[in-house]
């Protein structure tokens, strides 16, 4: 993964992520549009054979787009941590049920 | 988020995941399909092949044999310290195949492979590779490496990985006249009739085909079929290379790795 900033203004950010695809961008974009500070967030894969998607964010008011993107990524990270914890718990319950 | 294991063994697993969202499920599914590394043969040195199959054909068949993978010991070739084209003991396993049909026709099977590492062996002994007529012979050395499903299907860790919304089927008892049309229509035997009562069981088998709703003669319909957009039934079916549990854990690790790397590279400080 290699992140390149293509355009950065007060309310806008456009980055290119080399070596990623729908797998990573979709989950980030969906987390971004949940955020109330975001006006537009989208991603585009300009060519299907090159894996360099672009992520575009425009925020409302004083919110910095980099901060918003940072928060969205952290939110996904938190989700994955909750998943991990829930899965471990489910496994324990399953093993207990198997033994009894 | 709440997870319940519906069924689980080494090969396959079905989970009921409540209180999550589709993008996360889809990301996990895509990572499992294309980024969880497994072992597969990607280089074959053929010393002798007098079988009916051409060398390329035979090599292709060998490549598609799933191998039991030891992820803790081996490195991906691009991450290995050796930086060698041929690989080292930490990123390559050699498997030797040396068979000769003496006076009967024989079938060469995956069990004929002699592996350098006894933990890296084909997942099944019964995979047939080629038939040899009397006096035909095969002698070859195959090199297995770790790889990812996005590079070639032989490195895919799963034969199936899907998710679907958790179905919700409800029967409105005031509208229902217990005609049993929906029971007939349901191909998954989810709707059953006991006495005059329509009951629903084994709901996780429902494919949301809507046949029960179409079959209902009442207006408005007494049967309602919908789904819960925050709950999913997630199914994994491994090729046998890794356990289903390990595959899910690896996928989570890969997702976390991506997120941490992305956070590190974000241009936060420049603003």
For the CA atoms, what is the radius of gyration of chain A?
18 Å
CATH structural architecture of the largest domain in chain B: Beta Complex
Structural class of chain A: alpha+beta
The CATH fourth-level homologous superfamily of chain A: RNA polymerase, RBP11-like subunit
What structural class results from the helix and strand content of chain B?
Answer: alpha+beta
The helical percent of chain B reads 10-25%
Report the sheet-strand fraction of chain A. 25-35%
Number of strands of chain A: 4
Q: Count the helices of chain B. How many?
A: 5
Biggest interface: A-B, 38 and 37 residues
Domains of chain B, number: 2
Radius of gyration of chain B: 25 Å
- Mean pLDDT value of chain B: 93
Which strands sit side by side, in order, in the main sheet of chain A?
A: 1-2-4-3
The coarse silhouette of chain A is elongated
Largest beta sheet of chain B: what is the strand line-up? 1-2-12-9
**Secondary-structure element sequence of chain A?**
EEHEEH
What order do the SSEs of chain B take from the amino end to the carboxyl end, as H and E? EEHEHEEEEEEHEEHEH
Domains of chain A (count): 1
